[in-house]
Design goal:
Layout: H1 2-43, H2 52-107, H3 114-128, H4 131-139, H5 143-148, H6 155-168, H7 173-181, H8 184-193, H9 202-215, H10 219-227, H11 230-240, H12 244-258, H13 264-268, H14 273-279, H15 287-298, H16 304-307
Helix pairs in contact: 2-3, 3-4, 3-6, 6-9, 8-9, 9-12, 11-12, 12-15
Length: about 300
């Protein structure tokens, strides 16, 4: 009986030990698993959701930086282009000054030689379409030598000087006034009233008519031109010349002069000027200008009534 009890106790004790060992392993495993999970949770970070507003601000900053760089580049390019344009203008202006001074030097060489003639031709070209050239050339003193060239015995020199003076007066009242004050009107009339070779050269006459047209556009010149004897010359040219351009220039010059009442009397005293104008009324290209001249003539006190029957 005692032996049986001992055996039973031994069995129970051995079973309890095995049970405890099994529980111990489970507890250790649980602790290990818990520790592993804890360590994983501590080391692994959850993903942070994106903030869309922050992303928009960053994109705007990047865009602004890009625009700023582009703007700076564009500004530098524009600045460089501006500097190049200024430099180009300065070089161009310097070149023009050289040409203008060269023309003046050739004109001031004097005489009937080729230098003065070349200078007159150069002034004619430079002043044709350049208002600045007209102003600068006049300031450099080209008008007096050009007027002096009208006394030349060389026909080409006279004609070149006339057209150079004509171009200098285009759109420049100061030059128009300076040309008349230099005595050019009387010199021009001397060329057609006392021609060197018989009748006045038609090219020379055309150049003089063109000058009278341009110079008479200035009010202060109307009296000087009208009292110089230019009116009979213009009427004579109007009647005898067959060149349409010269005819139109003569009519326009006479109209400019007829604006001043003191110039109307010399017109009606020059032969059959008014009846001749009436015969030209059929020319559609001249009718308006003729009517304007007749209107000025008729409206002039102490002159108009003499024409009315």
């Amino acid at each position: 009986m005692a032996k049986l009890q001992q055996t039973s106790t031994t069995v129970v004790g051995d079973g309890s030990f095995k049970l405890w060992s099994s529980c111990r392993r489970k507890i250790i495993d649980a602790v290990r698993c818990s520790g592993g999970i804890s360590r994983y949770r501590k080391t692994v970070k959850s993903p942070v959701p994106k903030n869309h507003k922050v992303e928009e601000v960053r994109a705007s900053i990047d865009e602004c930086r890009s625009d700023t760089v582009k703007s700076d580049c564009d500004g530098k390019v524009s600045e460089k282009l501006s500097e190049l344009m200024k430099t180009s203008k300065l070089l161009s202006s310097a070149e023009e000054d050289v040409r203008w001074k060269a023309a003046v030097k050739r004109l001031q060489s004097g005489g009937d030689g080729g230098e003065a003639l070349g200078g007159a031709k150069l002034v004619r070209v430079l002043a044709k379409d350049d208002s600045e050239a007209r102003e600068k050339l006049a300031l450099f003193g080209v008008i007096p030598p050009l007027v002096a060239m009208l006394d030349s015995d060389d026909l080409d020199s006279r004609i070149s000087a006339l057209y150079a003076l004509l171009n200098l007066g285009i759109g420049n009242d100061l030059n128009k006034s300076a040309i008349v004050e230099s005595g050019a009107v009387h010199k021009m009339l001397d060329l057609v009233e006392s021609p060197i070779e018989g009748l006045p050269n038609p090219d020379l006459s055309a150049a003089i008519v063109a000058n009278f047209l341009g110079l008479s556009a200035l009010d202060s010149n109307k009296s000087v031109i009208g009292s110089s004897g230019a009116i009979p010359f213009l009427i004579k040219t109007l009647k005898s010349n067959k060149n349409p351009q010269v005819i139109q220039d003569s009519l326009r010059a006479l109209y400019n002069l007829s604006i001043l009442p003191s110039n109307v009397l010399p017109m009606i005293e020059t032969g059959d000027f008014v009846p001749f104008l009436l015969t030209m009324m059929g020319d559609t290209g001249s009718s308006d200008r003729i009517l304007s001249i007749l209107s000025n003539v008729v409206s002039t006190p102490r002159v108009g009534p003499r024409l009315v029957p």
